[in-house]
């Protein structure tokens, strides 16, 4: 797979890792590149299959350790409902909560950031004496492209 990756994005995560004094190993970087190359969320085993094309010795723990690192650093998100992974739209220069729109037809994932939604959730939790430490908001449906394709076939 030939990956056309934004060099600024790669440089951004390299700089963040250097600032945080964490190691962006070649395997971690490659897994990140594989995730970024796909608009759809990628499973760990899809990533392993792609990684094996350049690193035939790669094993599942290699990918899982890379995914754990990339999530911890905020470079990717886990799509909980499909147990897959997508790149983070801000590469986590700032911690943020995301809302994922997942197309059930083509599997593309769109990441949204809505401070109003996060604020509303926090207010509702506070009313009940609940402190949110993390949340995952995933909405499943049909994207505009797939919806248009269905309408055009009718």
Automatic annotation (TrEMBL):
Cofactors (names): Mn(2+); Fe(2+); Zn(2+)
Cell location: Cytoplasm
Residues reported in the UniProt entry to bind Fe cation: 96, 135
GO-annotated biological processes: negative regulation of DNA-templated transcription; regulation of secondary metabolite biosynthetic process
Statement: the UniProt record of this protein carries the keyword Lipoprotein: no
Assembly and interaction partners: Homodimer.
This protein's name: Ferric uptake regulation protein
Organism ancestry: Bacteria, Pseudomonadati, Pseudomonadota, Gammaproteobacteria, Vibrionales
């Amino acid at each position: 797979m030939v990956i056309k990756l934004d060099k600024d994005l790669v440089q951004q995560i390299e700089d963040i890792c250097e600032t945080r004094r964490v190691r962006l190993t070649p395997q971690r970087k490659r897994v990140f590149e594989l995730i970024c190359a796909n608009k759809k969320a990628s499973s760990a085993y899809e990533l392993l299959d792609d990684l094996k094309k350049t690193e035939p010795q790669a094993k599942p723990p290699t990918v899982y350790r890379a995914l754990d690192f990339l999530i911890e650093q905020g470079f990717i998100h886990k799509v909980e409902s499909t147990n897959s992974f997508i790149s983070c739209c801000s590469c986590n220069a700032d911690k943020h909560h995301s809302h994922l729109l997942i197309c059930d037809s083509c599997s593309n994932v769109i990441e949204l950031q809505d401070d109003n939604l996060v604020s509303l959730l926090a207010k509702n939790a506070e009313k009940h004496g609940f402190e949110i430490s993390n949340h995952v908001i995933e909405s499943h449906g049909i994207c505009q492209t797939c919806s248009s394709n269905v309408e055009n076939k009718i």
